[in-house]
């Protein structure tokens, strides 16, 4: 179903096989303006190869491009504008969607290669922040998109579950903690203890010593310290799991920072062997002067290891354990320097695969133009946000469709979908303004709008008693009115490919908004349900749209209710 490929193959033969078909395919464009045809081929590169004027080449080629699917070829300057045969192409598209259903636009270029995706990665005993939400949503969608492209995605939750803060937390818990309260409300209680520690420590610095000594006990494997740590970790994870469940996100691994405790000596040894470790201010660092980066801190003066040391161990572990072809880190752009250093150090160690590591950064979530903070009083608990969104969706349903069955299920699908879509619809580097009202609108570029369009298309099919296996036997002569929608169906696979290549789910989000808009416009203009010669074919097109909208939403991690 790749017409660029077909055109490239025709050109390849015409040009005496001088330029590969793959190269030719890359030159083919899609005209911005539909009146200029469906495909455009600029002849500038050929002109250089053939030493002829591009306009002349365009003239010469135009008469020779002949295949049933190419209806008309026009020459405009150095461009060939090619018009597809609407009837043939539409019918091929609809037929392949019938056959492939959700597998329509599956791509194979990933060839089974493993892609590890470091995503979500919240910190134990701290609230799940908006940054962690973004990482979860973006990472999950990238995983789904890479899988559609033939890769195997491995989702890793690199929990922040180790560090000096646990010494402080244990100290505070021993002094003021209440086990029942922690069980009931782990994150809130643990955060309160942590805050209290800092308040009291300001007046009484001996507390810091106690914190250090508890952390030392933890590092030395002291039983009491370890069991408290384990308990904080378990309780926090239980709370995070509720959020993951709401969002339908699962992980392949929860190997967090603590997992690498016994794997860092090896890294330090390797760095020593390769003579990369240098003493600086009593700490051990790797100099990155050539790379024009500040030195990467490996070990502090007291021997304590750092965030970077753990990430070095983690990178090596992932390579050895998962043999990745790409290793992604979906982490906010504040950590760009950290990942640059990480990749540079591994490169210096001689690991070629360091080039396959990619930091996939994203912008901030803003509220009234300011960063949303999780500190002190301004805690924005994500679960509250999701629940509020679900409640608002539920309220909307009550107003618009009070007789709907499974209102609760649909409210969850719409409420959660709205939050996810709002996050994914823009390029991930953009900051996003947080607004529940905006997310839940039924018009404009929102999750509910796309879901609603899907549900509407489903209801048309229900009214017509349409069966997904009743592929039309005859097709109408003209697909002119259908062409805008049909030609968009053709764009799904390229949108998926762009999203995968650029780690950018917004390509898929924008695409399904375009398709939904085109479909709604079509439906307003054409009486699909009216008896006519075209009825079966039109229904087939409506069905095709439902398949692609549902699959597009799925790639974003959003469900598609058939009624709402
Ligand atoms: N826990 C960290 C934070 O909340 C994010 C960890 C990202 N992943 C990594 N491998 N460093 O900032």
TrEMBL record:
Belongs to the class-I aminoacyl-tRNA synthetase family. It is found in: Cytoplasm. The keyword Cytoplasm applies. SMART domains: Arg_tRNA_synt_N (SM01016), DALR_1 (SM00836). NCBIfam families: argS. It comes from Neobacillus bataviensis LMG 21833. GO terms for biological process: arginyl-tRNA aminoacylation. InterPro entries: Arg-tRNA-ligase (IPR001278), Arg-tRNA-synth_N (IPR005148), Arg-tRNA-synth_N_sf (IPR036695), ArgRS_core (IPR035684), DALR_anticod-bd (IPR008909), Rossmann-like_a/b/a_fold (IPR014729), tRNAsynth_Ia_anticodon-bd (IPR009080). Its EC number is 6.1.1.19. Keywords: Aminoacyl-tRNA synthetase, ATP-binding, Cytoplasm, Ligase, Nucleotide-binding, Protein biosynthesis. This is Arginine--tRNA ligase. Monomer. It catalyses: tRNA(Arg) + L-arginine + ATP = L-arginyl-tRNA(Arg) + AMP + diphosphate. The keyword Electron transport does not apply. Gene3D superfamilies: Arginyl tRNA synthetase N-terminal domain, HUPs, Isoleucyl-tRNA Synthetase, Domain 1. Pfam families: Arg_tRNA_synt_N, DALR_1, tRNA-synt_1d. GO terms for molecular function: arginine-tRNA ligase activity; ATP binding. A motif ('HIGH' region) lies at residues 122-132. SUPFAM superfamilies: Anticodon-binding domain of a subclass of class I aminoacyl-tRNA synthetases (SSF47323), Arginyl-tRNA synthetase (ArgRS), N-terminal 'additional' domain (SSF55190), Nucleotidylyl transferase (SSF52374). Residues 5-84 form the Arginyl tRNA synthetase N-terminal domain. GO terms for cellular component: cytoplasm. It is an enzyme of class 6 (ligase). HAMAP family: Arg_tRNA_synth.
């Amino acid at each position: 179903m790749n017409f660029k490929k077909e055109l490239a193959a025709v050109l390849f033969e015409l040009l005496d096989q001088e330029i590969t078909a793959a190269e030719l395919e890359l030159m083919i464009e899609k005209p911005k303006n539909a009146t200029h045809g469906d495909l455009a081929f600029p002849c500038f590169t050929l002109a250089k190869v053939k030493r002829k004027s591009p306009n002349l080449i365009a003239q010469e080629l135009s008469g020779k491009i002949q295949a049933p699917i190419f209806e008309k070829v026009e020459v405009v300057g150095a461009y060939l504008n090619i018009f597809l045969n609407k009837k043939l192409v539409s019918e091929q598209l609809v037929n392949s969607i019938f056959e492939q259903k959700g597998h329509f636009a599956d791509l194979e270029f990933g060839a089974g290669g493993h892609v590890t995706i470091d995503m979500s990665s919240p910190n134990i005993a701290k609230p799940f922040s908006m940054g962690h939400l973004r990482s979860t949503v973006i990472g999950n969608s990238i995983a789904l998109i890479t899988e559609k492209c033939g890769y195997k995605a491995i989702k890793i939750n690199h929990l922040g579950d180790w560090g000096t803060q646990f010494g402080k937390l244990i100290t505070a818990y021993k002094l003021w903690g209440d086990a029942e309260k922690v069980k009931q409300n782990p994150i809130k209680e643990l955060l309160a203890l942590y805050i209290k520690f800092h308040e009291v420590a300001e007046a009484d610095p001996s507390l810091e010593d106690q914190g250090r000594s508890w952390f030392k006990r933890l590092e030395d494997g002291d039983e009491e310290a370890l069991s408290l740590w384990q308990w904080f970790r378990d309780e926090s994870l239980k709370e995070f799991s509720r959020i993951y469940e709401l969002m339908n996100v699962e992980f392949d691994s929860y190997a967090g920072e603590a997992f690498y405790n016994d794997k860092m000596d090896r890294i330090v040894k390797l760095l020593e062997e390769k003579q990369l470790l240098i003493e600086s201010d009593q700490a051990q660092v790797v100099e990155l002067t050539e790379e024009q980066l500040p030195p990467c801190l490996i070990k502090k003066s007291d021997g304590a290891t750092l965030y970077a040391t753990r990430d070095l161990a983690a990178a090596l572990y992932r390579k050895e354990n998962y043999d990745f072809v790409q290793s992604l880190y979906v982490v906010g752009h504040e950590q760009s320097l950290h990942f640059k250093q990480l990749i540079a150090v591994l490169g210096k160690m001689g690991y070629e695969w360091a080039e396959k590591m990619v930091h996939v950064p994203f912008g901030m979530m803003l509220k009234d133009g300011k960063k949303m903070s999780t500190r002190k009083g301004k805690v924005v608990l994500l679960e509250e946000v999701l629940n509020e969104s679900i409640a608002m969706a539920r309220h909307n349903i009550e107003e618009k469709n009070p007789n709907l069955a499974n209102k609760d299920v649909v409210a969850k699908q719409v409420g959660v979908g709205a939050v996810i879509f709002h996050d994914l619809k823009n390029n991930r580097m953009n900051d996003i303004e947080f607004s529940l009202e905006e997310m839940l609108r039924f018009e404009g570029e929102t999750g509910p709008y796309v879901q609603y369009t899907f549900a509407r298309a489903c209801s048309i099919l229900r009214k017509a008693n349409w069966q997904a296996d009743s592929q039309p036997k005859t097709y109408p002569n003209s697909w002119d009115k259908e062409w805008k929608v049909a030609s968009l169906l053709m764009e799904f696979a390229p949108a998926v490919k762009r999203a995968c290549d650029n780690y950018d789910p917004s390509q898929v989000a924008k695409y399904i908004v375009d398709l939904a808009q085109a479909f709604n416009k079509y439906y307003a203009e054409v009486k699909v349900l009216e008896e006519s010669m075209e009825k079966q074919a039109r229904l087939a097109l409506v069905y095709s749209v439902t398949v692609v909208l549902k699959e597009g939403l799925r790639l974003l991690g959003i469900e598609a209710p058939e009624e709402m």
